[in-house]
Amino acid sequence: MTTPSRYSTKPIELSLESWLLEGTPAPDCDQCAARAVKREQAVKAGDWKAACAAARGIRNHRHGHRETV
Ligand SMILES: [Zn+2]
Fold first, then answer.
1. Domains held by the chain: number
2. CA 41, 44, 50, 53: dihedral to nearest 10 degrees?
3. 62 and 46 in contact (C-beta within 8 Å)?
4. For residue 52, which of 62, 64, 40, 63 has the smallest C-alpha distance?
5. Would 40 be classed as within a structural domain?
6. What integer pLDDT is reported at residue 19 of this predicted model?
7. Domain containing 42: what range?
8. How far is the CA of 28 from the centre of ligand 1 (A)?
9. Is residue 46 part of a domain?
10. Most buried among 6, 14, 18, 21, using CB within 10 Å?
11. How many angstroms is it from 61 CA to the middle of ligand 1?
């Protein structure tokens, strides 16, 4: 009797947690807006890595100060 490996019959596509793609862009922030567009395009293209990176950038973007970076 062979040892059953993993019950991985399904392709690993939607293993990503949804929060990884979350992030609300600030209305007045050009950088957030640009990242939001990039995230949307990346999701459509199936590029989860880029989509997560863009979403993370939105979440991590510090607002409250008008700083030119
Ligand atoms: Zn921002």
1. 1
2. 80
3. no
4. 40
5. yes
6. 87
7. 26-60
8. 8
9. yes
10. 21
11. 5
Proportion of the chain above pLDDT 70, given as a percent: 68
Distance (Å) from CA 35 to ligand 1 centroid? 9
Mean pLDDT over 6-24 rounds to 71
Residue 16 lies in a domain: no
Nearest of 24, 27, 30, 28 to residue 60 by alpha carbon:
24
DSSP string covering the chain, please? Answer: -PPP-----S-SSS-S-GGGG-----TT-HHHHHHHHHHHHHHHHT-HHHHHHHHHHHHH---SS----
pLDDT digits (tens, 9 = 90+) for 31-45: 999 999 999 999 999
Angle formed at CA 44 by CA 41 and CA 45, multiple of 5 degrees: 85
The Å distance, Cα 33 to ligand 1 centre, comes to 7
What distance in angstroms lies between residue 52's CA and the mean position of ligand 1's atoms? 16
- 32 in a domain, yes or no? yes
